[in-house]
Amino acid sequence: MAQHLAPASPAEVGAALALLQCSFPTTITDPTAAKANVRAYAMALEEVPAFALEEAVRRILKGEAGLKGSFMPTPPQLREVANDASRPARWHAVLLRRLLEAEVEREITEEERARVAARFRTLLPN
Prior knowledge:
Layout: H1 10-23, H2 31-44, H3 50-62, H4 75-101, H5 110-123
Helix pairs in contact: 1-3, 2-4, 3-4
Organism: Xanthobacter flavus
Protein name: L-lactate utilization protein LutC
Keywords: Coiled coil
């Protein structure tokens, strides 16, 4: 599960952005602004799992992400769609971690039950 939730590599982020940039018009023409834009996406997508990024791109391209307009999603918008895609897997990871870290309760023997019951009987008035 941890491997599945590992952050997307820079190459995976680049491939996702390239696909979106080919699909949506951009207004950025200045090279300095383009570099800053790429850095903004990289920052926004830190620690996003590769599968979630791919699913986010798929949802955006299919028009299923709830985004309006015909322009490239902003870095926070892309992050939000990726977070939505990864939410079920992250929740399952939390549940699995809790199960793995849970302490196993031991079975109480009949002898222990009888001993405790006898002690309680001494506390009760006759």
